[in-house]
Amino acid sequence: MGLTWTDHIARCQSRAMPVATSPRRPAAVLAVLLLAAVGCAPQDDTTDSAASPAAPGARAAACARERLATQTVGKLTVGTDKPAYAPWFQGDDPANGKGFESAVAYAVADRLGFARTDVVWQTVPFNSSVAPGAKKFDFDINQVSISDERRRAVDFSSGYYDVRQAVIALKSSDAAKAGTLADLRRARLGAQVGTTSLDVVNDVIRPSRKPAVFQKNDYAKTALKNGQVDAIVVDLPTAFFITAAEVPEARIVGQFDTGGKPAERFGLVLDKGSRITGCVSAAVDALRTDGTLARLEKQWLSEAVDAPVLR
Predict the structure, then answer these.
(1) Residue 262 domain-assigned?
(2) What is the pTM of this model?
(3) Of 1, 61, 82, 97, which sits most exposed with the smallest number of CB within 10 A?
């Protein structure tokens, strides 16, 4: 849980150098001191995300909508890939507010002071969103896991969703009967390139044959359906949707334990060194604190079936 703005100010004051008071102190000097205090922003206690200079009920001056350095004045540009898959989006339309990530994006926008009509969606391929270089979006939301490697190229907000990876297999394959990681090692596995799903295949399952790598999950699903691979690894909510609605001839074999490591989290992606990273993180922190993220997760990512943990 993030610090409240009151706690944050108290902490900053305890570290600040004493400043002599004077009734004649110029207003410009006071303004500089205020901006310095805003720069000492609260951290999310559960992540190593960027500083967050705003909090529920007391938005800092630096995070007021008119002060935010967005791509377009008065607008908030949000990126995601296409197709925009369920359950993260609905109807391949990020702008309709349906699906977990669409709803989260609009909730963050609202916290930042933007009306729904002020949100502009932009198509951004997954790999482009985390590649080095200037971005044309204010933030991107596309099931991007926070990692130290990606932090070298982009900024992340606080995490908005804790996720586990899962494996789904054709019911007719031997992989569907797997009960342990060892049982999967001889299977023909696949995952989307540049994802933690592929990392799980290579680093956790460690298959005996090179896995198939796909540019999009859509291609991985097609390969699974056509029997070109025995199983694919995706995040757990996506696994439930694929097996229920898209590839019913497949089943969830199981999910993967974190092995005592911190939970994998999805974060909003921002340009490296973005001036609004702290404000976006503060908005996410506020949504976690007031229960909005939990409510949206329950609404859009409810899972009716338990998936066993593979070890």
Answers:
(1) no
(2) 0.75
(3) 1
